[in-house]
Amino acid sequence: MIKRRFRFLKLDRRALPMTSEPLEGALSGLPAAEAAGQRRAFVLPILLLLLLAAMTAFLAFDHLHGTEENRVWVRHSRDIIDTTQTLYSSLQEVESDQRGYMLGADPRTLKTFDVASEAVPASLRRLRDMVSDNPAQVARVDRLAAAAQQRVAISRMRVQLFREGDHDAAMKISPHSGLDAMDRIRGEVSEITRAESILLAARRAEANRDELIGFITALSVSGVAVLGLGFLVVSMALTNRRLAHEIAERIAAERAQRDSEARYRAIFANTADLLSVIDVGADGVFRMAEVNPAYERATGSTSQQLHDVDLRHLSTESVTLIDYLKAVIASGQPSFTRDRLTINGQRRVWESILVPVRNSLGAIDRVLSSSRDVTEREHAQDQLRRAQRMEAVGHLTGGVAHDFNNLLQVIRGNLELLASLVETNEAASQRVKNALHGANRAAQLTRQLLAFARRQPLEPRVVNLGRLVGDMAEMLRRTLGESIEIETVLTGGLWNTLCDPAQVESAILNLAINARDAMNGGGRLTIEISNASLDEAYARSAEVEPGQYVQLAVSDTGSGMDAVTLSKVFEPFFTTKTEEKGTGLGLSMVYGFVKQSNGAVQIYSELGQGTTVKIYLPRSREREPAYAAPVTGTLRGRSEVILVVEDDDMVRASAVSMLRDLGYACIHASDGDSALEMIKTGVKFDLLFTDVIMPGVVKSRDLANEAQRLRPGLPVLFTSGYTENAIVHHGRLDEGVQLLSKPYSREELARKIRSVLKDSRRVVLVVEDDPLVRMSAVDMIEALGFSPLQAEDAPTALKILESDERVDVLFTDVGLPGMRGHELAALSRDLRPDLKVVFASGYGEADDHAVPGATHLGKPYEQDELAEALGSPG
User: Fold this and answer.
1) How far are the Cα atoms of 496, 603, 619 from residue 499, in angstroms, in the given order?
2) How far apart are CA 52 and CA 45, in angstroms?
3) pLDDT for 803-859, tens place per residue?
4) Alpha helix (H) residue ranges in 685-765
5) For 281-333, where are the E strands, in sequence order?
6) CA-closest candidate to residue 808, choices 764, 865, 754
7) What is the C-alpha to C-alpha distance for residues 534 and 540, in angstroms, rounded to an integer?
8) DSSP state, 458?
9) pLDDT over 80 (residue 319)
C-alpha cells in the first residue's frame, strides 16, 4: 500500500532532458561562485529527497506495523465468533443426536453424539483462553459453559438410560431443563457474538482511520517533495504515469466486469435450475424482468413473453411467491422456500432461494430467484422411509418368528395327534378343530408379516404364468363363487419368469379375494398376463430396474378406492374391511413378495370404476422344467428311519410323535454335536430332519454337509420357524436345499418327507403295455426303494426321456406294440448315454446286442432278481 501511495515520487528518467554532456559539465561554464551556488542549490533538493525517502520508509514501516496489529485483532475477534459458533453447533449436534437415537435407536448416531460431546469441553477451554483479556466476555463464557455442561450432562444421562433399556426414565429426566439450557446457550452465544462483532467493527473503523491518516500524511510528504524539487518535468512525468496507471486499472476493471458478466450469463443460460430476475417497483409491484432457458422449458413461456409481467397476473400460486418476496424485502436477507407447485399440469415439489439485489444506493431493486425440482429426491426419501419402516417390521417379525412358530408347532402338532384320539367325541373333536383353526391363522399371520418384510424363504424356479393361472382356474371359481365372472387373457409368445410359484398363487388368490369383496353382489374379474418392457422413466416410478418383465394384471369392476385409501393400501395392517374379514396384510404380503422377487407392483383405482393391480416379475430366458406332479398315493412311511435333530424338547417330541404315527422309525438328538456323534458311530437312517437354528458348535448346515460327506446321497430336510442366513441368502433358499417351514401340519410333514425321499432315490421308467403287469412291476420297484415312472408304450417313454424328468433306469418289456424294446433302448441311449437298461421278456433272451451293458430279466421274476438287476436304489 505504501509503495502504491508514494510511487509517483519516483523520477522517470525518460522525462528528464537528456544531453551528451553530464549536468556538471553544463555547470562548468559558470563562474566558480555561481557554480558552487548552483551545486549548493542541488544539495537542498537532494537532502529533501533523502529526508523524504527516510520519512517514506518510516511511514511504510509504521503503517505496515499498524495494519498487521489491526489484522491480528480482527482475526482474534473472528476466531472468537467462529469458536462460539462451533461450540453452539456441537451442542446442537449433541441435542439432535440424542433425540435421533431415542427416536430411531440407531447406534450410528451415537458416534457423532460422542464426538460432539467430547468437542464441547475443548471448545469451551479455547474460548476462555481467547477472551481472557475481556472481563465482560469472560463472565459470558462462564455462563455459557455452565449451560453447555448442563445440556451435555442431561443428554448423556438420557442416552445412557436409553442404552440400558430404561426408555421411560430417559424420557422423564429433566424434560424442561434441556430446553432451558439451550435457551440460555443461545442467549449467551448471541451476546458473545454481538460483543465481538462490536469490537470487530470498532477495530475495522480504527484501521480505516489509520489508513486515512497514513494516506493524508503520504499526500503531504508528496506535496513537500513536489515543492522541494520544483521541477515541472518531473511533475508532468509523474502525472502522466499516474494517468497511465489509472487507465490500466480502469481497463482491467472493465475486463473483469465483462468476464464476470460472461460467467454469470453462462451460468444463467446453462444451469438446470429455474432462474428468474424480478424487478421491485417503487409502487411495491413485482414484475418479471428475465428468466433463463430452463425456466422457459419448464413453463413453456419465453423470457420475452414474461418480461415486465406483473406477478399477480401469472397464476393463482403467485400470491404465495409475492408474500415470500415481501418478506425478503422486509428482512433484506435471502430466503429459502419449499412448495408444491403445478407447472404444465404436473404437481411437483420445488425448493427455491430468493436473494435480494441492491443498487448503488443500497436499495433493493431486484430479487434473484433460483428454483429446483426436488420431486425425485422427495420420492427417494419416501422410498427410504418405507424401507426403514419395512426393516423395522422385519426385525420385529424376525425376532419373534422363530420362537413363536416353535410354540405354534408344539400346539399344532399335539392338536393333530389329539384329533385322532377324540374322533368319536363330537364336542371334543370340534374344539380341537377350532384350536387348529386358530393355530393356522396365527401361522398365516406370521407368514404374511415375513412376506411383507421380504424375509420369507423363497423357492424360485422358472415358471410360465399362463400355465400356472390356467391350473388355478378351477380353484378361483370355487373360491369366488358363481356371482363373479372370471376372464383370463393370455398374450401369445408369453415369456417365462423366475419366481416362487406358491407365492404367485397366494398373491393371485389374495388379489382375487380382495376383488370379490369389492364387487359385493357380483362383477367381472379379469386376469391378464402379457410381456412388458419397462423403460427407465416407468421403471423409476415403479422402483424397479428397467428391462423385460412378465406382467400379471388383476382387474375388477368393484367399488374402487379414493386417492387417500390408494396411498395406504400396501401399508401393513391397513384394511377397509371389518375386523372379522381382514387383517390388512394381504396386499402387504403381495408387495413384499414381489419386491423380494426383484419385481414391481403398481395399483390403479377410481371410485365407482374398479381397481387394477399390475405385478411385474423379471423375465427368465430359461425353459420351464417339466411340471412335477405332487406326491400321490399313500403318504405313510415304509418303516424308513429318520434322524430328527431339534433343540426344543417339546417341538422334538411333537415331530417324533407325528413321524411315528405316519409309519416312520425315528432316532433323535437335541443338538448338532450329539447328532454328528450318532452319525459317526454308523447308525443307519434314511433321512436327516434337522432344525436350522440350534445351539452348540456344530450348526445345522455344517451337520448336513458332514452327514452327506459320510453318507453320499443322504437326503436332508431342514425345518425352521424363521431363518435368515443359514440356508437363505438374499431372500432365497440356497441351491438344492429342502425346507419345511414351521408350523407345519401332519399332512404337510408327510407330503414333504415322501417328496424328499422320492427325490433322493433312483428313478426307474417302467415301459409295459399290459396294465396288470405294469402295476405289479411298479409296486415291486417302489417296495425296493426306487421311484417309479410309468409308460404304456415306446412313444410315451421317449417323450418322458426327451423332457427334463429324471430317469436313471429304463426297465422295458421287449415285445412292445409299434416299437420293440431293443429299438426303444437304442433311441433312449442316444438321448441319455449313461442310462441303465434292463429288459424283461417272457419269451427267452432279448435281442439286446445293439444295447451294450443292458441286463436281461426273464418273466416271471422274483423281487430279489429284480433288485439285483436294478442295483442300489440310492
Assistant:
1) 10, 20, 10
2) 10
3) 877 788 898 888 888 888 888 888 888 888 888 888 888 665 545 456 788 888 877
4) 700-710, 746-759
5) 286-291
6) 764
7) 9
8) B
9) no
For the purposes of burial, counting CB atoms within 10 Å of the CB of 423, is it exposed (0-12), middle (13-18) or buried (19 or more)? Answer: exposed
Q: In what order do the strands lie in the sheet with 286-291?
A: 286-291, 274-280, 364-373, 346-358, 335-343
Give the cell for residue 23.
549536468
Q: Is the pLDDT reported for residue 154 higher than 80?
A: yes
- Amino acid identity, residue 5? R
pLDDT at 32: 53
Kindly tell me the sign of the dihedral angle through the C-alpha atoms of 122, 124, 130, 132: negative
Which residues, in sequence order, are CB contacts of 489 under 8 Å at separation 6+?
A: 526, 527, 528, 529, 530
Mean pLDDT over 394-417 rounds to 69
Residue 38 grid cell:
548552483
Q: How far apart are CA 387 and CA 407, in angstroms?
A: 30
User: C-alpha angle 313/316/318, rounded to 5°?
Assistant: 70
Segment (H or E) for 651: helix 649-661
Nearest to 599 by CA among 614, 584, 585: 614
CA angle 812, 816, 820 (to 5 degrees): 85
> Contact at 8 Å (CB) between 197 and 76?
no
DSSP of 491-553? -TTPPEEEE-HHHHHHHHHHHHHHHHHHSTT-EEEEEEEEEEEE-HHHHHHHTS-SEEEEEEE
Q: What is the grid cell recorded at 126?
A: 479455547
- pLDDT-derived band of residue 668, with 50, 70 and 90 as boundaries? very high
